[in-house]
From TrEMBL:
Pfam families: Beta-lactamase (PF00144). The keyword Methyltransferase does not apply. Gene3D superfamilies: DD-peptidase/beta-lactamase superfamily. Keywords: Membrane, Signal, Transmembrane, Transmembrane helix. This is CubicO group peptidase (Beta-lactamase class C family). PANTHER family: BETA-LACTAMASE-RELATED DOMAIN-CONTAINING PROTEIN, D-ALANYL-D-ALANINE-CARBOXYPEPTIDASE/ENDOPEPTIDASE AMPH.
């Protein structure tokens, strides 16, 4: 009897196992911390696992002062490319598009000065291996196109950078031509086909490819740590297959479930594999690319918006992060990496602080440049007196150091183009998410010009007095 009593006491005294924590709580706690540490004006995210949405939520506010939720529409920029690839693949499996047949004969009005364009296929467009490049296409002439048909016709004077199928070059024209191919093959406007063949079957009721149908609030740019609301930068957005999709975190949850092969399937398993498989010349697939952690990802930037999505075919996880703010540093991918780490059982650190620190440094550069300009102007006469008797070339050589920031600023957009693998960069674009860097370089250049001008004026004055 005493053993029975002892056993009973031990059972009653044993700690009750804690209920298994809801994984959504870990994700939400992390996102709440990430929203604070990044300081983003609005942040929305979704996490999926196999056939279910684990969490879809939002933090912060939009430019109209409304709370950001899982149902807040935002532009997702180049994340749109995976949707365009899906639209093409549905038509491939319906027999109305062949991936490896040339598209020029299918697209009325599409011609180029380079005869090699006649060899471009749908696969080349989706793999970004068509030879189209920002370096050989006048992308500025495409910004005010009125339709995809008009867009395609504006390429008539342009050429290719490479033979089709031989080299990867990221170029938005590929996906806008793919969207035009969808229109021609389906007999429907791209926006209508995407809504009927992709959005509607998945239940993505808050998604569109036109702000006439779904209007996102204007986003923000970070300016030395302060978020400034900005109107959307003009460009070809409506019906754009390269970056036109407007959607929500909740809708992206349905999309990620399908992309992992669960729930409603828009194409066959083979079709999904085709879209997720890199081309023969680069790791880029069709609107997706593998990262170092084995995920398939794609990010997007549209000057006042940033977005990123990822799927993990091995585990069935999916992640998407959207924000209505853009700065010199994109925080969406670090946030996504944190979500992926939690899904794998990790405990990620908060991702924020980098943007704020970098913009603080840029602010100090602006202040230092202004101070040095004042000091340089005040000391210009002393500088001139020391060099009044020197040879002219020596005086000019002494001016070069203060003019170096001018040269750097003049080369600024071209330097960014080199860093971004040949993507076209305009001065207008550099006044958006890169504004703090642009201002810092501009003030440094202006300071150098002011000091150089003051020195030349003083030098001439001193020489005349002698």
């Amino acid at each position: 009897m005493k053993y029975l009593i002892t056993a009973l006491v031990l059972v009653l005294a044993a700690p009750v196992p804690a209920a298994h924590a809801d994984p959504a709580t870990d994700f939400e706690d992390y996102l709440e911390r990430a929203a604070r540490s990044t300081g983003l004006p609005g942040l929305a995210a979704v996490v999926t696992h196999r056939d279910r949405v684990v969490l879809a939520t939002g933090f912060g506010h939009d430019s109209d002062g409304n709370p950001v939720t899982a149902d807040t529409p935002m532009r997702i920029a180049s994340v749109s490319k995976s949707f365009t690839a899906m639209a093409v693949m549905t038509l491939v499996e319906d027999g109305r598009i062949a991936l490896d047949e040339p598209v020029a004969a299918r697209l009325p009005g599409f011609t180029m000065a380079d005869p090699r364009h006649e060899r471009i296929t749908a696969r080349h467009l989706l793999n970004q291996t068509s030879g189209l490049s920002d370096t050989t296409v006048d992308t500025e002439a495409l910004r005010d196109a009125t339709s995809l048909a008009d867009y395609a016709s504006r390429l008539r004077a342009d050429s290719l950078a490479d033979d089709p199928g031989t080299r990867y070059r990221y170029c938005n024209v590929n996906y806008d031509l793919a969207a035009r191919l969808v229109e021609v093959a389906s007999g429907r406007r791209f926006r209508d086909y995407l809504r009927e063949a992709v959005f509607a079957p998945l239940g993505m009721s808050r998604s569109a490819v036109s702000d006439d149908e779904l209007r996102p609030a204007d986003g923000y740019n970070s300016l030395f740590g302060a978020w400034v609301p900005r109107p959307e930068m003009p460009g070809f957005h409506d019906d754009s297959g390269a970056g036109g999709v407007i959607t929500t975190a909740a809708d992206l949850g349905r999309w990620l479930v399908s992309q992992n092969g669960y729930g409603t399937r828009l194409v066959s398993a083979e079709g999904l594999r085709t879209m997720h498989t890199p081309s023969t010349v680069d790791e880029y697939a069709m609107g997706w690319a593998p990262d170092d952690a084995g995920r398939l990802t794609h990010s997007g930037n549209l000057f006042t918006y940033n977005a990123v999505q990822a799927i993990v075919p091995g585990t069935g996880h999916g992640f998407a992060v959207l924000t209505n703010g853009a700065g010199v540093q994109d925080d969406t991918y670090p946030v996504l990496e944190g979500l992926a780490a939690i899904a794998e059982g990790g405990r990620p650190e908060d991702p924020g602080g980098g943007r704020q620190a970098f913009e603080l440094v840029l602010g100090l550069v602006v202040a230092a440049s202004a101070v040095l300009a004042v000091v340089g102007v005040r000391r210009a006469r002393r500088w001139a007196e020391r060099r009044a008797g020197a040879a002219r070339w020596r005086a000019v050589a002494r001016l070069l150091p203060v003019l170096l920031p001018v040269a750097v600023f003049a080369a600024y957009p071209y330097s960014i183009e080199v860093v971004s693998s040949g993507r076209t960069v305009t001065w207008e674009q550099l006044t958006y998410f890169a504004a703090p860097l642009t201002i810092a370089l501009g003030v440094a250049a202006l300071s150098g010009l002011v000091v150089a001008f003051a020195r030349v004026v003083r030098l001439r004055s001193v020489q005349s007095a002698r």
